[in-house]
């Protein structure tokens, strides 16, 4: 009589350059919108945890800021440290590479994984945008020589291609141990954190050029009333001239951001939401690392 296969679980860091699709991959694996996603690079500023339960075990996935070359602000340097430190103490790293065109930032991410000495899985993302699938094998061989992965996968986080195979493959390389979290949990992030990220997502989607990169969001109040959530969010901008851009003519931009953020919150929290947005200038906050903890950048 065959004994049942032992359950496996562990922590897995999703690592790579900006816009490789790490956050989209996290959301696809979890089946919930845990990490915000936009078309702009450097959308992710925090380590965001998503939990995946499969028949063979449990994945505790950690989305990380994209490892990037910009170091013109203290915030950029902080995000690179957050990304690199995420590799410490994890059971496995997934190096996510955009299959349509690796860059020097991918090379830097690969070096960071090797230096961390953690077991690595290679995941080539966005294969739905690769014209010739025959190009994928030599691409994989080239990158495998750099990082010596335990396994290689080809996926489309956007379309869902290869996601089940990736999830099962990751579990195969985790320790044999009981689940780390209850089966009904899909994230360790608080509702306040998720609300702040949803507002920031809309800032990125509705503002242009450098403006959204100088913004951050602080949840000042979060009240769970019997029939709805009442949330007060403070939007901070790093320059005086950006405040008017966030508000817009006749406050139309701020209203649009608030409306879209509210709808996203209602979908996530499954309850009506009353959202109040306030905009305030906090000049130069992106260069004051001493303030990052107060603004939620302590992880």
List keywords for this structure.
Rossmann fold, 299 residues, 2 domains, alpha/beta, six-stranded mixed beta sheet, globular, GMP Synthetase, Chain A, domain 3, three-stranded mixed beta sheet
User: Which of globular, elongated, flat, extended, rod-shaped describes the shape?
Assistant: globular
Terminal CA distance reads: 48 Å
Count of separate structural domains:
2
Q: Structural class of the helix and strand makeup?
A: alpha/beta
What kind of assembly state do the chains in view correspond to? Answer: single chain
Low-confidence regions: none
The helix-strand sequence is EHEEHEHEHEHHEEHHE
CATH architecture of the largest domain: 3-Layer(aba) Sandwich
Structure description:
With 299 residues, the chain is of the alpha/beta class. The chain has 2 domains: 8-172, Rossmann fold (3-Layer(aba) Sandwich); 191-291, 2-Layer Sandwich (GMP Synthetase, Chain A, domain 3), CATH 3.30.300.20. 33% of the residues lie in helices and 22% in strands. It is built from 8 helices and 9 strands. It has helices at 22-30, 74-85, 104-116, 136-147, 163-172, 191-206, 240-247, 252-269; strands spanning 8-15, 48-54, 57-63, 92-98, 120-125, 151-154, 215-224, 229-237, 273-281. The strands form 2 sheets. It has a 6-stranded mixed sheet with strand order 2-3-1-4-5-6, sandwiched between helices. The protein has a 3-stranded mixed sheet with strand order 7-8-9. β2 and β3 form a beta hairpin. α6 (191-206) runs antiparallel to α8. The termini are far apart.
């Amino acid at each position: 009589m065959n004994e049942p296969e032992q359950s496996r679980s562990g922590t897995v860091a999703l690592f790579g350059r900006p816009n490789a699709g790490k956050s989209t991959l996290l959301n696809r694996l979890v089946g919930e919108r845990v990490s915000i996603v936009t078309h702009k690079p450097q959308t992710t500023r925090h380590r965001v945890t998503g939990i995946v339960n499969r028949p063979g075990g449990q994945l505790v996935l950690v989305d990380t800021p994209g490892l990037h070359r910009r170091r013109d602000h203290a915030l950029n340097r902080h995000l690179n440290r957050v990304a690199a430190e995420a590799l410490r103490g994890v059971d496995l790293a997934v190096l996510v590479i955009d299959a349509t065109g690796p860059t020097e930032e991918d090379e830097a991410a690969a070096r960071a994984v090797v230096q961390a000495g953690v077991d690595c899985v290679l995941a080539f993302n966005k294969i739905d945008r690769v014209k010739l699938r025959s190009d994928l094998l030599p691409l994989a061989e080239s990158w495998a020589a750099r990082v010596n992965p335990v396994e290689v996968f080809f996926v489309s986080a956007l379309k869902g291609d290869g996601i089940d195979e990736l999830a099962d493959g990751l579990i195969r390389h985790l320790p044999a141990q009981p689940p780390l979290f209850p089966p009904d949990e899909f994230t360790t992030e608080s509702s306040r954190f998720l609300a702040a990220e949803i507002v920031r997502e809309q800032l990125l989607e509705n503002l242009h050029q450098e403006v959204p990169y100088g913004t951050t969001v602080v949840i000042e109040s979060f009240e769970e009333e019997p029939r709805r959530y009442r949330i007060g969010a403070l939007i901070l901008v790093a320059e005086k001239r950006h405040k008017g851009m966030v508000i817009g003519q006749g406050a139309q931009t701020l209203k649009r951001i608030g409306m879209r953020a509210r709808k996203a919150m209602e979908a996530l929290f499954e309850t009506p939401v009353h959202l109040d947005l306030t905009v305030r200038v906090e000049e130069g906050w992106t260069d004051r690392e001493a303030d990052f903890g107060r603004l939620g950048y302590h992880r």
